[in-house]
Structures are given as C-alpha cells and as structure tokens.
Amino acid sequence: MSEPRHVVAFSGGKDSSALAVYLHDPARWRRTLGKAGLPERPPLARPEYVFCDTGTELAETYDYLDRLEAYLGTPIQRLRADAPPGETPFDHYLALYRDFLPSPQMRWCTRKLKLEPYEAHIGDAPIVSYVGIRADEGDRVGYISTKPNIETVYPFKEDGIVKDDVYRILEESGLGRPDYYRWRSRSGCYFCFYQRRSEWVGLLENHPDLFEAAQAYEKLDPETGARYTWSDAESLEELARPERVAEIKRRTAERLSRAAASQPGRTLLAQMFPDSGLLDDARDAEDAGAGCHICHL
C-alpha cells in the first residue's frame, strides 16, 4: 500500500489555521506552550493544505489564506464545486435547489460546496485528515467521512491544546487572527445562517454591500405570506432598523461586561488579548450553538 497523503483542510478560522502552524513545527510549539511528556510528533511530511471556496467568503478570509501560505511556504489549494463561468458555486446550487436557502435543518451548502469538492480532491488513495478540534471542546466532532481510505486525526485533542493555546500560537507566530474576528467569531460565507445577530450587525457595519447582497437573497411570497429568510426570527430588513441595531449592540455590551466580571482570575494570555476570549464568551452567551463543524473550525 502507498504512503498516505497528509491533508489539513482550512475553514479560514482560527483553529484550523493554528493547527497547520502547530503541525509545521510541533516541537517548537510544545516547548512554547509547556506541553511536556507527550509522544513524539514530527512535522508533517509533504503536507497538503486545502480550502473549499464557495465563492462567497469574506475578503478577510482570502487575505488570511495568503498570509498562511507565506508562513507555511506551501500553496493552499483552493477547491471549488463546479459552476458555470462567472457564477459562484453557491449561486449555481441555489438555483438548482429552486432558491431554497440553506438552513441548520437543510445544509445543502455544506454538502455541495464543502464536502463533495473535498472528497473529490481526496479520491481513493490513503489519506490522513487533520482536524483542528480542541481539547476543551468536549465531544464535538468535525468532518467525518464514510470513505474507508480516510483516517481522521485530532492533534489538539491528543496534545491537550485549548483555546488560549490557539490564540497564543497565532499571536506568537506573527499571523494573528483573521481581521474579521474584530466583529465575527466564525468563518464561513458572509451570509452564513449560523451568524449571531451581533455578527449580522458587524457585517452591516463593516461590509454594508455584502449585508445588502445577503438581504437580496431573502424573499416574501405575497400570496402565501411565507418568508424565506436567513433567520427564522427576523429578516435582515428588520434587523437593520436603527432601533434594532442599537438594541443588539446594547445587549452585546452587557454580555461583554458580564463576561469580564465573571473572570477576575483570567490567564495572562487572556489579559494580554482581552478581545479574544471575552468576545468569544459574550457571543457564546448570545448563542452557544457550535455552528457548522465543517465551515467554522
């Protein structure tokens, strides 16, 4: 049997990015993080880095991929589902699904735009797939394929790497975090239905053109009154009203204040980078759902 290929798939988020950096030089990061007594983990031999591009990612995500390529010294292969020239993979499949927007109950976007291009790229050769789920994420699992040629490995779980470690890897490597982390804590399409309301407000304020584009996907059937919106609770038109935006921002500030008050003995790293963990905690208090395990690692 041939030697397996070693594949790290990026979402554009902090965990998968930190995983690639960690696997690039495990000995260095174990020393840095004080992870002693672990079984030897050599750097990956001839790693493959891949990113499944829906065509509707944030510009900050593409910029961050370029920075990762420069750090790793290896190209990140951009995989795309088939689509006609000039059309994004998302819009192509949206038309095939008769304008039925994806949702937590019907995640055709994950299957068609992420999983299928990834599995087509992998083929039938032996594969070791590295997934960036952390040791502090409980029973969470990421991409699990039924293909018998894929072995899934969780280095962060095996080595006890937690969220503070991830932030430290990114900061001390010089990469930092993707710029969208100023207002959003999950990677993925700019209109992802898993976004919290505060993140929709962040999109409105940082990329008003993309907010308008996301809003244009929403529909109201005048005959039946049926609404086709990214969120069941409210449309983007309703969310964008000034009084609603002010309410969401006020509640976010309250959650952030509570998060800060509840953690007087926070780690040195969290004190150095308070916008990292505290904002995560405040957003989790808004909506603790883990989001899409494929798109948001």
Record the SSE blueprint.
Elements: E1 5-10, H1 14-24, H2 26-33, E2 47-52, H3 59-72, E3 76-79, H4 89-96, H5 108-122, E4 127-130, E5 150-153, H6 155-159, H7 163-172, H8 197-206, H9 208-217, E6 219-220, E7 227-228, H10 236-239, H11 242-261, H12 268-272, H13 274-286
Helix pairs in contact: 1-7, 8-9, 11-13
Number of helices: 13
Helix content: 40-55%
Any idea what the radius of gyration is?
A: 20 Å
What's the N-to-C terminus distance? 31 Å
Task: Quickly give the structural class.
Answer: alpha/beta
Uncertain segments: none
Q: What can be said about the biggest beta sheet?
A: 5 strands, parallel
Mean pLDDT: 87
Instruction: Label the overall shape.
Output: globular
- How many individual β-strands? 7
Structure description:
- The chain is an alpha/beta fold.
- The protein is built from 13 helices and seven strands.
- It has helices spanning 14-24, 26-33, 59-72, 89-96, 108-122, 155-159, 163-172, 197-206, 208-217, 236-239, 242-261, 268-272, 274-286; strands at residues 5-10, 47-52, 76-79, 127-130, 150-153, 219-220, 227-228.
- The chain has a five-stranded parallel beta sheet with strand order 3-2-1-4-5, sandwiched between helices.
- Helix 8 crosses helix 9 (208-217).
